[in-house]
Amino acid sequence: MTNYQAIQTILRTEIQTETDKDIQATILKQLELLEAILEFKYLGKKDKLNVKLQKQVQELIPVQAQVQEQKQVKTYAETLQTGIQEKNNQNIKSKTQQKQKEVKEYKEKRLVIQTTQEEVAKLNSYHLRNQINDKFFQKEGIAKPVVAIVTKSFTGLSIILTIISNFTADFLIQKKIVWRKLVNKIARKVKKDIHWNRIVVHGVPIQPFSTDEGLNMLQNEIETFNPQLKLMKKPAWLYSKENRQVKMHTSIVIAVENASQAEYALHRKLCIVNL
Question: Which fold has domain 108-192?
Answer without folding.
Answer: Alpha-Beta Plaits (3.30.70)
